[in-house]
Design goal:
Elements (H helix, E strand, L loop, with lengths): L1 E2 L5 E2 L4 H29 L10 H21 L6 H15 L1
Antiparallel strand pairs: 1-2
Helix pairs in contact: 1-2, 1-3
Length: 96
């Protein structure tokens, strides 16, 4: 049995299934962080930075922001992944 934050017991999922759910929760966190970071990078003047503005900046900035968001999510993010994972487990258990 696996214990969740609500205090209720849930059957343990296989390692592969739990790994897939955890990756999905991290992906959700990454998408949320990407949306939070976009306005920051949209308003930042990066013309003197590595990309240097212009067409290259417009093309590569969204990819750079997405990778930054993925990196933050992989390293703990905002703490969203764990509650999202717990909710996904609850929803799956409720379907049974």
């Amino acid at each position: 049995m696996m214990r969740v934050d609500s205090g209720q017991e849930m059957p343990a999922k296989s390692d592969a299934a739990q790994g897939k759910l955890r990756r999905t929760a991290e992906d959700f966190t990454s998408v949320a962080l990407n949306e939070l970071l976009k306005p920051i990078f949209d308003t930042a003047d990066m013309s003197d930075g590595l990309i240097g503005g212009g067409a290259a900046e417009q093309a590569f900035k969204p990819m750079m922001v997405a990778e930054i968001a993925k990196n933050i999510a992989r390293n703990g993010g905002l703490g969203l992944a764990e509650p999202v994972l717990q909710q996904m487990l609850r929803l799956q258990e409720a379907r049974k």
